[in-house]
Write a structure and sequence with these properties.
This protein is mostly helical and 123 residues long. 43% of the residues lie in helices and 0% in strands.
Length: 123
């Protein structure tokens, strides 16, 4: 019985060899840029690059001063970009507008709704 268990354990060791940890002294003078970008096998590793597929959103009004000057409750074409097809105002995290311009935008959308240029709700 002991021979069988020894053979089984040896077979398991052959299939799954233990990984030995290799310790090296770290040299403080070395440049660690290569180590920081290490990704390992199949992109899995301790140091991974950030996923750069998402583009940072920029406030359209801060970037384009002409658009900011044209923002008015009468300009429905501009205001419609910032509401859904159901009539809801899109949040900052989706549109990318800054807090200052989001407040101004909401105020202008509400003025346009009160006059009747924009719908409150679309069914």
């Amino acid at each position: 019985m002991t021979e069988e268990t020894n053979q089984e354990t040896e077979a398991v060791k052959e299939i799954h060899p233990t990984k030995e940890k290799v310790y090296t002294k770290r040299n403080d003078d070395e440049d660690d840029d290569e180590e920081k970008n290490f990704r390992g096998k199949d992109g899995e590793g301790k140091f991974q690059k950030k996923n750069s597929k998402y583009k940072r959103k920029v406030c359209k009004f801060t970037a384009d001063k002409q658009l900011a000057a044209a923002l008015n409750y009468k300009r429905v074409d501009i205001l419609e970009r910032f509401i859904t097809n159901r009539g809801k105002i899109l949040p900052r995290r989706i549109t990318g507008t800054s807090a200052k311009w989001q407040r101004i935008l909401v105020r202008e959308i509400k003025k346009a709704r009160a006059i009747g240029l924009l719908p409150y709700k679309v069914l």
